[in-house]
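Explain this protein:
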Amino acid sequence: MRPYKPLTASLVCAALITWAAPGQAQNYREFPIGGRTATMGGAGTAAGNDSAMPYLNPAGLVGVPGDVFAVSATVYSVTRRSFDDFFYPSGTPETLGYQQESESFTSASVGELPSSVMYFSQPGDPEATIQHRIGFSLIVPSARRIAVVASVAGRFTNAGGRALETESINAHYTRYYAGPSYALGIGPDLRLGASLYGVYHRSTVTTSRTSSFSFLGGSVSSTFAGQKAQIAEGFSVVPVVGVQLRLVSDLWLGAGVAAPSFPIAGKFRFNSDSSGVDPDPTTGVPRSVATTSTADTEYRDYTPLRLNAGVAFDPRQGLSLAGDVHVYLKRTDTEVDGAQRIEQRRSGELTRQFVRDVSYSTMAEQVIDLSLGAEYAFSEVVALRAGGFTDMAAVAPVTERPDQAGRFRLNRFGGTLGVGLKSGSFDSTVGVLLAHGVGHYGASDPWVNGAVVPVRTTETTGMLILSGAITSAEAKKAIRDTLPVDAPVPDLDGEAKVQVEVAPSPRAVKPKPPPPAPPAPPDPDSAADQAPPAPEAP
């Protein structure tokens, strides 16, 4: 009886020559941005005024009080994943009598990353009808980490054999927006704004897989080991414009438009190395196969046209409500142009070296996302916030094509909860986000040459969100109140004041007293007056 022979090393080596789509978009709203906006489910287009506004709707910057520095950060996040069947998506051949003995699976990724940082100033008269805001911001609207380490071991009861497989995946995708913004307020009811961002995208993917199969007590065996690493970097420019309009009282409408990106530069680098030993199907003699592949190509990364609109009832006292809809249009996502260098080595044959042209593109699907948020202000100091959002997948469904191996596609749904605290002009937010994603993963089938099976996968992410904003006037006041010694400090109206009392330094040395002055010479007149009387004659 000839035992069932798993995927040959030669075909596996050939499969590793290819690569996954570099940096292809997964989801557009993977990271909460802003403070109040982040904990209200991302709904801020109509009336938001925090650090999410330069990216979401620059018109909201008119609502920023004075000169402001603001930071929002996801100080800690953790993601866990599960798969229906990671190693054997189609099961195992019944004729081999496979019995699983052990399985180890870990899929948790931890990340800490600021999601938005901005500084904006208010030139001109703060009481004027026409208001201006100008500043700079750094925004991280999407960041994804994927980490999977897994192994499985079993035995073939009908073929006297054993099997051991291991696999690890480590991927990181991040998109950074940095640039200036300007906002204009015309009266209390109309706000306009624009941002011009330079966008830097970086994605890294490393994978490793090993497998070992033996049959007939080890007389027939097959082993394989392969590693792959790729990095994609791209730089582009994206303009963003927006408007906010007060209809009546506390009812606001808002809209934002992010134009499709204009790629400027980009590089994609890839290398893989695989080797294996497999019995020749004709003679049964073990043969070794190895493949090495490298590529350094031009790379262009695109972001689609984004249209977002929102409505908000926003009195900032008592109950406030907000809702947004985001539409991302379908367009080309990535483009690669260059050459791939391949070297193949097979026992008993000459080494083959060749170069092939590589030119292909990927597409991002149209996506519609929703955000809903609410805030209840118990007082001017404390407010409770909550929200919900969707984050639908932008990539096409996973198919059974060989190039779909290792691909994720998930639709995510999440909720947020937070508390806003305000002291003077310092506004802070503490919140949590919980998101759950459901989708598919392209799992390689080791029993069928080149086959990929979409298996169900889930993802759960928890994040801790912190944000804070403070006006420069409040910062000056805080510095003046906390200085260890009194000194001239700019007052809130710009004039310098000097404190009268000066606290002595704790290390000051006490001055020595001056030496005593020499006694003054006696005065003759004064001496005569003070002389004792002469004795009288007898």
Notes: Residues 1-17, 489-510, 526-538 have pLDDT under 50 and may be disordered.
